[in-house]
Amino acid sequence: MDELRAQINECDDQIMQALDHRFQIVRQVSRYKRDHQMPVRQNKRMEALVARLSQQYGGQNISAEFVEQLYQVIMEHAIDLEEQTIGQED
Ligand SMILES: O=C(O)C(=O)C[C@]1(C(=O)O)C=C[C@@H](O)C=C1
């Protein structure tokens, strides 16, 4: 049991490190959007991203609904960060 939980901790560390890295990139995206007068929210991109991930990772453990819910949370946080980043630098 301890070994299995250690493996779960390792997965969680990887998830959080990947998210932290993703949000650092999102901050760079927000600067690009500010400089090119692009809207923060890009609905088509968000739909395409969820479709790609559902297609690629959907299966026994991960449903399309799960991908949608998870990325709803991740992308709303990304949008908040972009708005904050743009707001701070204006
Ligand atoms: O691709 C972008 O334009 C982003 O800003 C990144 C991101 C995302 O988190 O993937 C965030 C907000 C947009 O609505 C679309 C996608």
TrEMBL record:
Gene Ontology biological-process entries: chorismate metabolic process; salicylic acid biosynthetic process
Keywords: Isomerase
All residue ranges annotated as the Chorismate mutase domain in the record: 1-86
Segment forming the signal sequence: none
Coiled coil location: none
PROSITE patterns per the UniProt record, alphabetical: CHORISMATE_MUT_2
GO molecular function: chorismate mutase activity
Cited PANTHER family: CHORISMATE MUTASE (PTHR38041:SF1)
Name this polypeptide is given: Chorismate mutase domain-containing protein
